[in-house]
Amino acid sequence: MTQSFVSPSLVALGVQLTLGVLVFLANPRRESNQCFLLLSIAIGAWLATLHYGLSTTSVAIAEFCVRQASGAGVTILCILNLLRLSITKREGGWREIIGRSLFWLLGTAGIVCLCQTSLFLRSVSLPANTLTGITSLVPHYGSGIVIYIAYFLGATGLLFFNYLKALKQSTSTARAELSFILVGEAIGLGLLLIAFGVGFVIDRTRLIWIAPFRIVFFSLVIAYGIATRKIMEVGFFLRRAVSYALLVLYLASLYTFVWWLFTSALRPISSNAGSMGSFIAAIVVAFAMAPARGVSQTFADKLFVGTRGLDFRKTVSKATTILQSVTTLPELLRRFGTTITEALGPESLTVYLAARDELRPEYSLGDTSVQSGVTLARDEMLVRWLERDRQPVVLDELTRRRETLETVAIRERLQALNAAAAIGILSREQLIGVMVIGPRISGRIYGNVEQNALQVLCGQLAVAIQNAKLFTEVQNARIYNETLLQNLTTGVVAADADGQIIVFNHEAEEITGLSATSAVRGTVRELPGPLREVIENTLTSRERRENCEVTLRLASGSVFARASSSIFHGQDGQLLGALMVVTDITALKRLEQQIRRSDRLASLGTLSAGMAHEIKNPLVSIKTFSQLLPDRYDDSDFRETFSTLIVHEIDRIDSLVNQLLRFARPAKPLLQPMHVHEVLEKTILLVQHRLYQREIKLTRVWDADVDTIRADADQIEQVFLNFFLNAMDAMKNGGELTVRTSIVAADAVVSHLAGEDASDEILQICVCDTGEGIRFEDIPHVFDPFFTTKDYGTGLGLSVVHGIIQEHGGQIDVESELAKGTVFHIYLPLVRFKEEVAAA
User: Fold this and answer.
1) What is the C-alpha separation between 405 and 411, in angstroms, rounded?
2) Mean pLDDT highest for which of 220-234, 581-595, 741-755?
3) How are the residues of the chain apportioned to helix, strand and coil, as percentages rounded to the nearest 5?
4) What is the pLDDT of residues 345-357, one digit of tens each?
5) Mean pLDDT confidence for 521-543
6) Contact at 8 Å (CB) between 360 and 432?
7) Are 812 and 828 in contact (CB under 8 A)?
8) Of 311, 568, 687, 821, which residue is the least packed, with the fewest Cβ within 10 Å?
């Protein structure tokens, strides 16, 4: 008997002491861990005394070991009570624990002293078994054994009662730890009863080797409840333990039965019947394992149906449905929080979402008096821990960890938030939020199952939050765009690739006179003709149209508009449709007419003053000679001078009147296709001799590869000739005259000639001289009638030229600087004719 106990007891002793040290090192400053070390030492002392007592041949040593083993037994009960107080009264420290354990300490000390007397143990004998030759230890107790047994049973009952009472009054981790201690005690007692019952069937000497491991199983369960960081619900622990126990028992029985069956059947025909039976039994067990595991788990769940907490699958399924159906962020958080609350029953729940450099509470449920208005900084310990470790932080687990500055700061933060746990909401490796939940109303802990469920749910919540934010952004963008479109002072019309109108804002209604409701249901063919042509041309040619001036003939009157259009593509480059922007320029046109009318009136005053001055001079000469004529009629020289003067002054008045007529009523240009370079060359030829006489260098730069326009060649020649003569007058003798052509893009600087073949390009002709230049303050007046800086001339030349260019749909700009020269920029609409333009 003693030999069968030696090896198991030594193994159990080593395991027990190692377990005690590991639990203590897990958190040396925690009273529960310290108590477990004391418990392991007491159990180790009990195992050691039993080992030496059962293995010795000395009666004195055996008697000593029996006394000390008995004393260690009651010491274990006392330490179990200290362990209970260290869990329920941890805030008071050892002073309160010792103060509440005086009865136990005094009682234990008295029983230990009793064990050292002959009243408890009179003697010990070591008789040998006649059959096996193995000695056994037989104690001979005194009358004091009654006191010992009564105390032991009373202390055990009181211990169970105190544990049950504390279990009912405790919550969270304390309740879970007490539950595991009770489960450990129940396992130890159950193994003892099983061994006692089996002893009636099997020789007890063969079961003695199991005895040391009963206390080890008991210690393992308690150690798990005290030292593990992620403690699970005791009900879940029992279900899992029973499930695996049933699975092992079933598979072992199945293996034994199959091995026996095949071995018995194959033994008569094969010498390897045992090996073959083992092989076949192993195959059967392998195939039976999966279904057997499901059956054992189902049975365990039914057996412990009252201990079931969170239904993981049901909760996740319900949350998934919510996350898929909810669109707005507030509704998402509300329904998600309700689901979590129904599943776990927390006192409070708050969801913080990232906003710049902090996390702000976006949803709160329950008692949120502490959390209201509280934000979480990005750089605080709790947030950094969640972002780094990506695991839930549970307050109860922090108390079980070895204390560090980080864990203490996080624990204090959770306590300040009245929270029991915090879970990070992570999306694409980034922390976008934190869920803070309070203690459970049931008092249960947030065990492994609950933490795993919360982590999975927060992972789904992160995706749903991103989707909800995107949905909200899209909704806000849609509202913003609609508001913007409806309040634009420019009409916006958009059509898809098939010509179906998809956007038609309020200003477009005002310009076209169409209803947005009916327009959006229709196509671009229902738009007014000029606008329809612009957008259809863009859809067909896929080219931009800019600043097309159109006139809309509506029932309410004519509307002048400027339309620009362009196409837009999808991400893959596919044509999605066309966009047209329409601006009502009716008021602008009316204002332009008023300005022109005002300009004419202003010019009329200037013209009247100029005419009076220019006509008065020759009339004065004529009047003077007419008055002298009667007196000097006989003077032949006078008559000859008078006749010459009269003709000259009358010719001067006639020339002035003709110029006035050309200015006031310019001839309507006869627009025909022509080459500008050809007209320029012809005009240069007319002035080339004068250029040579004045030693003026001529430079031609024809950069325009196309020079075709619609114009009156004679009037355009008159324009160029006027600019060339003015340039030569400005340079006197010497200098350089540069004539340059180029093509520039059309913009708001110039207006187009109306016509089907007009392009969106402008032909620019620059006439540059190196003459005296024009004063800055005189530049705005160079095109005014009768304004001139020359000593002679009428000042009507540039006014006439300006009118001709305007009639051709063009524009003239002037740049000049004194002593450096002047540049006149002439802009004319370029026309790319489909047929070749014949030379003049």
Assistant:
1) 10
2) 581-595
3) 60, 20, 25
4) 888 888 898 887 7
5) 85
6) no
7) no
8) 568
CA distance 122 to 143: 9
- Both tokens assigned to 299: 């049975």
Both structure tokens of 364: 């709160």
Question: Both tokens of residue 358?
Answer: 């902090």
Alpha helices in 267-394 (DSSP H): 273-303, 312-325, 329-344, 381-389
Contact 74, 45 (CB under 8 A): no
Reduce the secondary structure of 32-73 to three states and give it as a string: HHHHHHHHHHHHHHHHHHHHHHHHCCCHHHHHHHHHHHHHHH
For residue 293, give both structure tokens: 């595991």
Contact 45, 72 (CB under 8 A): yes
Residues with Cβ within 8 Å of 403's Cβ and at least 6 positions away in sequence, in order, are 27, 29
- The residue among 552, 508, 501 whose CA lies nearest residue 524 is 501
State the Rg of the chain over Cα: 55
How does strand 697-702 pair with strand 736-745?
parallel
Segment 182-223, tens digit of pLDDT: 777 776 666 666 655 554 555 545 555 566 767 777 787 777
Residue 192's CB is within 10 A of a number of other CB atoms, namely: 15
Neighbouring residues of 78: CB distance < 8 A, sequence distance ≥ 6? 101, 104, 105, 107, 108, 155
Q: What is the distance between the alpha carbons of residues 741 and 702, in angstroms, rounded to a whole number?
A: 5
Helix H or strand E segment including 827: strand 821-831
Round to whole Å and give the CA distance between 778 and 465. Answer: 68
Q: What is the pLDDT of residue 703?
A: 93
Among the listed residues 817, 801, 809, the one whose alpha carbon sits nearest the alpha carbon of residue 683: 801
Distances (CA, A) of 21 to 153, 579, 701: 30, 78, 100
Residue 157: partners with Cβ closer than 8 Å, 6 or more residues away: none
DSSP letters, 733-783, are SS-EEEEEEEEEE--TTSPPPPSTTEEEEEEEEEEEE-SS---GGGGGGTT
Q: Any idea what DSSP says for residue 232?
A: P
Residues 436, 442, 444, 447, CA torsion sign: negative
Cβ partners under 8 Å of residue 487, min gap 6:
506
| Cα(459)–Cα(437) distance, integer angstroms | 16
Q: Which H or E element spans position 152?
A: helix 144-169
Distances (CA, A) of 157 to 21, 87, 187: 29, 19, 16
**Alpha-helix runs per DSSP H in 502-545:** 506-512, 516-520, 529-541
pLDDT of residue 323: 64
Using CA atoms, how far apart are residues 83 and 232, in angstroms rounded to an integer?
Answer: 19
479 vs 459: CA distance, rounded Å: 30
For residue 510, pLDDT over 50 is answered with yes
As a whole number of angstroms, the distance between CA 596 and CA 594 comes to 5
Q: What per-residue string of b and e applies to 746-780 under the rule 16 or more CB within 10 Å gives b? A: beeebebbeeeebbbbbbbbbbbbbbbbbeeeeee
Q: What is the phi/psi pair of residue 718, to 5°?
A: -60, -40
Q: CA 471, CA 103: separation in Å to the nearest integer? A: 67
Q: DSSP letter at 309?
A: -
1 near 210, Cβ under 8 Å?
Answer: no
Q: Could you give the angle at the alpha carbon of 448 between the alpha carbons of 443 and 452, nearest 5°?
A: 115
Residues in the chain: 840
Q: Can you list the pairs that 294-300 forms with residues at least 24 positions away whose Cβ atoms lie under 8 Å?
A: 296/242, 296/243, 296/244, 296/246, 296/247, 296/250, 297/239, 297/243, 299/242, 299/243, 299/246, 300/238, 300/239, 300/240, 300/242, 300/243, 300/246
Beta bridge partners of 140: 123
Tokens of 104: 């136990």
pLDDT in tens, 313-324: 666 676 667 666
* Residue 744 bridge partners (DSSP): 762
Amino acid, res. 548:
C
- What DSSP string runs through 422-491? EEEEEETTEEEEEEEE--BTT-----HHHHHHHHHHHHHHHHHHHHHHHHHHHHHHHHHHHHHHHH-SSE
830-835-838 Cα angle (round to 5): 85
